[in-house]
DNA sequence: GCTTGACTTAGAGTGCGCTCTAACATTTAA
DNA sequence: TTAAATGTTAGAGCGCACTCTAAGTCAAGC
């Protein structure tokens, strides 16, 4: 019943490279993974879920340092310390919201510029192939 | 009338460091800036506007390489080639929209986790200081 | 038994975007 | 006149997050 996954399978499932998975373990984002008799890593379903959550933190731009703090809290106080963990996530949430806001604000200016180019492009094409009507008007 | 700005003033106005301003010029994101008789940079209002737009591209995550392509187009064909420029910005726009979407998707999971911690925290506190009512119920 | 391929490690290397340094010139205020 | 501040350059250095390498172990198929 206990589905154990190889590092390749976890890489395929998460989109992280095998290099990155080992790197994350080395810098203690992931606790020491179980091993087969031959010493190869065998990831549990729980390991996979943890890695998937880690990846969501990364994809929203949380620095490795901060993820390490979070992972350390989970490791050292698995049944308490919820407040500190929540605090880290809540602070990060605010940072991500601010980032989204900034992206949207800057996108407005870029959109405006795209629109501007559309118009310039249209005028430029008109000047190359003027229709008789346009010219006489 | 022609307001010329020092590198410090442009740094203050844009939020970029003087180091970064010189770096951008070196890698041709910014065309060679005018100089005072003593050789110090003097930025025009146009320079400032260009740098501000560049900064919006950077803040939305456009790589320096792509900004270089865009800057090169503006420099080589200031009065045409609007299509290629628009294309770069439009592609970038799509990338930014996708990034915002991904941030929002991942944020849903993080939000869920924060909520989960709120509940665990509440239960943990209840178990420490149980009210008579709660205990008898 | 032997090859092939997936796995292991410690540690080196990479790409990006700055960021800083050293050595020197110029400007400004006291 | 002189000290402090600001500017210049080429080039080195840095922090981040991977990404790869070398040298070796192990398991499966022929």
Helical content of chain A (DSSP H or I, runs of 4+):
over 70%
- CATH fold name of the largest domain in chain A, please? Multidrug-efflux Transporter Regulator, Chain: A, Domain 2
Cα-atom Rg of chain A, whole angstroms? 26 Å
Task: Label the CATH architecture of the largest domain in chain A.
Answer: Orthogonal Bundle
* Span of the ends, CA to CA of chain A: 80 Å
When the domains of chain A are counted, the total is: 2
Principal-axes geometry of chain A comes out as: elongated
How much of the residues of chain A is beta strand, in percent? under 5%
Give the largest chain-chain interface (CB within 8 Å). A-B, 33 and 34 residues
What's the assembly state of these chains?
homodimer
What is the CATH C level class of the largest domain in chain A, in words? Mainly Alpha
The residue-averaged pLDDT of chain A reads: 91
Number of helices of chain A: 6
């Amino acid at each position: 019943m206990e589905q154990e996954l190889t590092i390749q399978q976890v890489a395929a499932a998460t989109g992280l490279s095998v290099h990155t998975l080992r790197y994350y373990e080395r810098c203690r984002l992931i606790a020491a993974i179980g091993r087969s008799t031959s010493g190869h890593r065998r990831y549990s379903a729980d390991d996979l879920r943890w890695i998937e959550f880690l990846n969501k933190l990364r994809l929203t731009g949380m620095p490795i340092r901060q993820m390490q703090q979070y992972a350390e809290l989970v490791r050292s106080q698995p049944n308490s310390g919820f407040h500190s963990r929540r605090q880290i996530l809540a602070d990060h949430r605010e940072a991500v919201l601010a980032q989204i806001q900034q992206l949207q604000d800057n996108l407005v200016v870029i959109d405006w510029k795209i629109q501007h180019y559309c118009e310039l492009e249209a005028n430029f094409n008109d000047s190359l192939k003027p229709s008789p009507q346009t010219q006489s008007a």
